[in-house]
Design brief:
With about 230 residues, this protein is an alpha/beta fold. It has 2 domains: about 5-80 and about 155-230, P-loop containing nucleotide triphosphate hydrolases (Rossmann fold), CATH 3.40.50; about 90-150, no CATH class. About 35% of the residues lie in helices and about 25% in strands. It has 10 helices and 10 strands. It has helices at about 40-50, 70-75, 95-100, 115-120, 120-125, 135-150, 165-180, 195-200, 215-220, 225-230, and strands at about 5-10, 15-25, 30-35, 55-60, 65, 80, 155, 185-190, 200-205, 210-215. The longest helix is centred in the C-terminal third of the chain and has 17 residues, at about 165-180. The chain is globular.
């Protein structure tokens, strides 16, 4: 397994949000985390990245525990995070944003070819100020910045949020290609069920801070009652 969580508890101050999460993410696969609002999806992503402390349990990545490491140390181990809302630097150019993704990495100051191969729009717009781009282009930039550090694993929190459907499909296709061609492991939090079923091989459902079920995407397509059961759709 590329990533494993064993009975992980985490939260904000004295408030516990994750209440014993156990989850395995296979190397080279796209795994989706699904659940209603407020169930702990974003908290889980932040905990993996070290932005929130693990209060109990163990997080392992690529064969070694990462509990207690700083976010920059976890990033240097090979995990890249695209947070909800993108959080790009609006006043910087596309190129400057991408170069920030290389800081502290062996390729610091050099944007790898794979970024522009998967997102050619970023090469075309590399001198454009990021804040003048559309929402879909900014999301591609956020993903490209994460890829610029040549990670082993990519965490994506709501990549379709606020983006028009045609661009959502384009981003989904690109992420599938990245996972296949670059052998990149992806953990995806996403509300767009169709996008999830198109991208992910495995879907884990979280309720009240615990993983309550894991199903293959084919099984979910074959029996939509499972989705209704866990998401209330």
């Amino acid at each position: 397994m590329m990533l494993s969580l064993d009975e992980v508890e985490s939260g904000y101050g004295s408030s516990l949000v994750l209440k014993g999460v156990t989850l395995n993410v296979a190397a080279g696969q796209v795994t989706a985390l699904l659940g209603r609002n407020g169930m702990g999806k974003s908290t889980l992503m932040k905990t993996i990245m070290g932005l929130l402390p693990v209060k109990r349990g163990v997080i392992g990545f690529d064969g070694a525990p990462i509990n207690g490491l700083r976010p920059d140390q976890i990033s240097n181990r090979g995990i890249a995070f695209v947070p909800q809302g993108r959080e790009i630097f609006m006043e910087f150019t596309v190129e400057e944003n991408l170069l920030l993704g290389t800081l502290g990495k062996p390729n610091a100051g050099w944007i790898p070819d794979l970024v522009f191969a998967h997102f050619p729009i970023l090469h075309e717009r590399r001198k454009q100020i990021a804040g003048t781009m559309s929402g879909g282009q900014q999301q591609q930039l956020a993903i490209g910045r994460a890829l610029a550090g040549q990670p082993k694993m990519l965490l994506l929190d709501e990549p379709s949020e606020g983006i028009q459907p045609s661009i959502v499909e384009q981003i989904a296709q690109t992420l599938r290609a990245i996972a296949e061609k670059e052998k990149l492991t992806i953990l995806l939090v996403e509300q767009n069920v169709e996008m999830v079923l198109d991208m992910a091989s495995t879907c884990a459902f979280i309720e009240n801070g615990r993983i309550v079920a894991t199903h293959g995407s084919e099984a979910l397509r074959a029996d939509e009652r499972l989705i209704h059961r866990y998401l209330g759709l």
